C-alpha cells in the first residue's frame, strides 16, 4: 500500500507492507527515494509492519519547498516525528541507511525520539574523512569514477538527469563485488532529485556532527556495516557509533560494501531478525 499523508513540513509519500510491530525505514542519498530498500526489507513483512517514507524534497514527497532555507537536517528530523504521529505508530523501530542514519541519529537526540530502538546501516556520526574517501576511490575506481569523486560529487548537479548519471557512474564503488544486477537494483526505478542532493550534500551536511552526543542516546541500537565500505568505512564510521552509543551492538558483514542488504541479503536479514527478536 502507498499513500501521501499531510504533515506540517509537507506532503509525505509513504509505502507500507505487512502487519505487526512497526519498522520505519529511512532512505539514504539524499536525492534518492526509498525504492532501493524494498527488495530486502519487504522480507520482514511476514512479522512486522514495514513502512517507508520519501524524505521531503526527495522521491514522490513534496518538492515544492524552499530548498535555500534548509541549512541542516531539521526538516527531515521533524518529518520523521510527524510521520510517526500521523500514522499513530506505537513503539516503532527506526532503520536508517546512510543519510537516513544521520537523520535517525539526530531524531534520537530529540525529546520525542529519545529511547526509540534503531538499526543503523552503513552510516556515521560525522563526516570529516574526505581524504579517506578520495584515497579509496583512487585505489579501486576507474579514471571516470575518480574524476566523479574529485570533481562531480562536490559540485551542484544541474538537474535530475545529471545527478542520475553521476549516481550510476559511482555505484560500482559502493559494492565489494559489483555486478550489473546489483548496480541496477540500486539505480533503476529511482526518482532522482538534484535539488535534494545539492541541498543535503553541499549545505545541510556541513552542520552534521553527533559524535560528541552519542552517550546521550538511550535506545537499544544495532549498528550494521559491511567490511568494505569505501565511503563510510567501518573503522571510522560504524565502529565509533557502536562504541559510543551505550546500548549498541555491532554486526559486520564480510565481503560487503555500502549496501549489505543488497549484496548479502540473507546474512543481513538473519542479523536483523535476531536483533528484533531479542529487542
Structure description:
The structure is a single chain. The protein has 279 residues and is an alpha/beta fold. The protein has one domain: Alpha/Beta hydrolase fold, catalytic domain (Rossmann fold), CATH 3.40.50. The protein has helices spanning 38-41, 74-86, 99-108, 130-140, 143-150, 160-170, 180-187, 194-202, 238-244, 260-263, 265-278, and strands at residues 2-7, 10-17, 21-26, 48-53, 93-97, 118-121, 221-226, 248-253. It has an 8-stranded mixed β-sheet, sandwiched between helices. Helix 2 packs across helix 3 (99-108) and helix 4 packs antiparallel against helix 5. The longest helix has 14 residues, at 265-278. It is globular and about 50 Å long. The two termini are 27 Å apart.
What is the compact description of this entry?
The protein is of the alpha/beta class. Helices cover 35% and strands 17% of the residues.
| Proportion in helices | 25-40%
Order of helices and strands: EEEHEHEHEHHHHHEHEHH
Number of domains: 1
Oligomeric state of the chains in view: single chain
Output the CATH topology.
Rossmann fold
- Number of DSSP-assigned strands: 8
Secondary structural class: alpha/beta
Task: Considering the chains and any ligands shown, give keywords for the structure.
279 residues, alpha/beta, Rossmann fold, eight-stranded mixed sheet, 17% strand
